[in-house]
Write a structure and sequence with these properties.
This is HTH araC/xylS-type domain-containing protein. InterPro entries: Homeodomain-like_sf, HTH_AraC. Residues 141-239 form the HTH araC/xylS-type domain. The protein is α/β, with parallel strands linked by helices. Helices cover 33% and strands 24% of the residues. The strands form 6 sheets. An 8-stranded parallel β-barrel has the order 13-14-15-16-18-19-20-21. A 6-stranded antiparallel beta sheet has the order 23-24-25-30-27-28, covered by helices on one side. The protein has a 5-stranded antiparallel beta sheet with strand order 6-3-8-1-11. Helix 2 runs antiparallel to helix 3 (112-125), helix 8 crosses helix 9 and helix 13 crosses helix 14 (361-380). The mean pLDDT is 87.
């Protein structure tokens, strides 16, 4: 079942009783919305809850009314007839309603996702109860409390007059002036409302209900019922559940009309509700590889066997990666074949794959010969196992290597798997489609090199903002290349300093490339001359925020994900992992809530926060120190021991509501909900 949704287009002029359900009022009007319940005014919010049997009056020019019939609550064994409820977490309920309204507009009410949302909403709005007794200390509301407590009895003006020591005429005046309803209609309509529990929930016979509520006869009950419900009890019981609804003037429920309306999930842009729902975690994992740019070939020895900082050894790097040497292979090919083979052996005998630039097809043939010689030496003469299951990625520029020559490149040589990536940057820059001859080569990947893009824009003397270049590039990729086939080289050249200095914003922009991304280059150690490039380690050998972000993203590389507003969710074997990011300067509230009961009542939760304070070594170094190149190794190592994201562990009972994370500005947070 699904809530009935109505658009209220004008203020109500008369109070109405809420029968057999709960109503949620979602204001669409920027001006103040006032809801009167039992004569009391409520204002200052855009969301209100009207309980079963409440007398209500809504004063607004535009509001959505979500009617939740009692049958919905019955399925969850929630009693709405003997409890009053108040909204505990407004942002969570607003988010539920916004998503439900979107489901309604797109005719997706019967999907598993929509039904999970309904279940969550019902539990959320009934999470917190409050006493029937009114807090307002007035004679009228003391009388209302008395009427509710003695509704099975015969209550008359005379009874109230004696109980409260006031005249009957005074009581009549109180009801008419404050409730815009006479005393008889107030009590009679309330009694009919309360009788619906026996009629609808317990399916009692009409005669039994009349006796239970002390009506003089079944006929008298039928007369009263029809007066306020517009239908006899018998016909009401025979109505299909989806026909239970509201009968109010100035309301529209036509789906075509409601499609033209729009509501935001929250009125506060600094709040986001995160729904953990298995049915929504069905998008592809965020999986990509890094081309770890180690610079020229001379750096190979230093990075493969780091003498001091063992964590910089690439064999310890956790992410899917290639060692990327950014100079052409031709630079190491010399007349000394043995020297060349030794250099290649150092690459292939590591447990990490290798990416090499090729500018000459003759160099490829030399690599083949070197691999063959290496294979012969290892199998015949050296006391070590031959290299198998290694990967070699050849980065080819079509301006330098002929298409016909590329056809002769083998994809496997003695257990070394060879992939090719073709540079199509020029096609993008010139506004050209990729030729069929290039497709026919069946490359594993395509590359976009931003070292070509940025100078090209400068040569044209056109001002291209980051957003314009990003949009035009994604248009090109969408039209020419299959999903997840593109490698971005030197992409940090495109990013502005504002993006590079904000880890959360960098993540947000990077996620936009998700449909196209196969891999991306990242500098191994940040050069001192370039302050803003993306690197794994800074120039004093310490891990950067991008290193820690990569480790966090590893949790989303193997399992399906859900990509939501400022967050990603995945489910692992024994946990839910949630990555939150706040690219703004101000604090952002995230409400983590469960759609279904997937977790134990008391759930252990770990939180890792990554920003310029946690996970950035500069936060520990006084700003007066400008030159860090003279730091001794012992100090560098000590800094590395304290340079981590901030970790905390908490426990939460989701039966009490959403778990709230207050994420500082320009921060990323990894939340883990442990299922066992």
């Amino acid at each position: 079942m699904f809530p009935k949704i109505y658009h209220l287009t004008a203020p109500m002029t008369q109070p109405v009783r809420c029968f057999n359900g709960i109503i949620l009022v979602f204001s669409l009007n920027e001006n103040t919305t006032v809801v009167k319940k039992e004569g009391l005014e409520y204002r200052g919010k855009n969301l209100y809850l009207i309980n079963e049997s409440d007398l209500y009056e809504i004063h607004t020019q535009s509001a959505l009314l979500f009617y939740l019939p009692s049958a919905l609550f019955k399925e969850l064994d929630i009693d709405i007839f003997n409890h009053d409820f108040i909204i505990q977490q407004y942002d969570v309920v607003r988010a539920d309603l916004a998503l439900l309204f979107k489901c309604y507009q797109t005719c997706e009410q019967h999907t598993h996702h929509a039904q999970s949302l309904v279940t969550h909403l019902l539990k959320e709005v009934t999470r917190k109860t409050h006493s029937y007794a009114h807090s307002t200390d007035t004679t009228l509301h003391h009388m209302i409390d008395y009427i509710r407590d003695h509704l099975h009895d015969r209550i008359t003006l005379e009874v109230l007059s004696k109980t409260f020591d006031v005249s009957s005429s005074y009581i009549s005046t109180l009801f008419k002036q404050n409730l815009h309803m006479n005393f008889y209609d107030y009590t009679a309509s309330l009694k009919v409302a309360k009788s619906l529990e026996a009629l609808s929930i317990h399916d009692e016979k009409i005669k039994t209900v009349a006796e239970l509520w002390h009506y003089p006869s079944a006929t008298n009950y039928i007369i009263n019922f029809k007066k306020y419900m517009g239908i006899t009890p018998k016909k009401y019981k025979g109505l299909p559940l989806d026909e239970h609804g509201l009968n109010l003037p100035n309301t529209v429920s036509d789906v075509n009309t409601l499609r033209r309306l729009h509501i935001e999930s929250t009125s506060d842009t600094h709040k986001t509700t995160v729904f953990v729902d298995d049915s929504r975690i069905n998008a592809p994992a965020f999986s990509f590889f890094n081309l770890v740019d180690v610079g020229p070939y001379d750096n190979i020895d230093r990075i493969i066997s780091e003498p001091i900082f063992f964590y910089k050894n690439l064999t310890n790097y956790k992410l899917a990666s290639y060692i990327y040497i950014n100079e052409p292979i031709e630079n190491i090919i010399t007349d000394n074949a043995q020297e060349t083979i030794i250099k290649l052996r150092k690459l292939f005998q590591t447990k990490i794959s290798v990416a090499i630039k090729l500018t000459d097809i003759q160099s490829y043939y030399y690599i083949v010969k070197a691999i063959e010689d290496l294979h012969y030496l290892e199998t015949e003469h050296l006391p070590i196992a031959p290299v198998h299951d290694s990967k070699l990625l050849l980065l080819l520029d079509l301006n330098e290597i002929d298409v016909n020559d590329i056809k002769h490149i083998k994809r496997n040589i003695y257990g070394i798997h060879i992939a090719i990536a073709l540079d199509v940057t020029d096609c993008y820059l010139n506004g050209q489609s990729i030729d069929d001859d290039i497709y026919a080569l069946n490359p594993d990947f395509y590359t976009i090199d931003f070292e070509k893009v940025i100078p090209h824009q400068n040569q044209l003397k056109k001002y291209h903002t980051f957003k314009k270049v990003q949009w035009s590039l994604y248009q090109f990729l969408n039209q020419n290349i299959k999903t997840n086939k593109t490698i971005f080289l030197n992409y940090d050249l495109l990013y502005t300093p504002d993006i590079l200095n904000n880890t959360a914003l960098c993540l947000k922009e990077s996620l936009k490339s998700r449909p196209y991304l196969a891999g991306a280059s990242i500098t191994f150690t940040q050069p001192a001359a370039r302050k803003h490039n993306i690197a794994l380690f800074d120039n004093i050998e310490n891990k950067t925020t991008f290193y820690f972000l990569g480790v966090m993203l590893l949790n989303f590389a193997n399992y399906p994900c859900h990509y939501g507003e400022n967050h990603i969710i995945t489910r692992a074997m024994h946990s839910y992992n949630i990555l939150l990011y706040n690219s703004k300067a101000d604090e952002h509230d995230f409400y983590i809530t469960l759609q279904n009961e997937q977790l134990p009542a008391k759930t252990l939760i770990s939180t890792e926060i990554l920003n310029s304070e946690y996970g950035d070594v500069d936060s520990m170094i006084c700003s007066r120190i400008k030159d860090k190149s003279n730091f001794p190794n012992s100090l560098k190592f000590k800094l590395s021991q304290y340079n981590t994201p901030h970790l905390s562990v908490d426990e939460h009972n989701f039966d009490d509501g959403a778990y709230i994370i207050k994420l500082p500005g320009k921060s990323v947070s990894m939340i883990t909900l442990y299922t066992s």
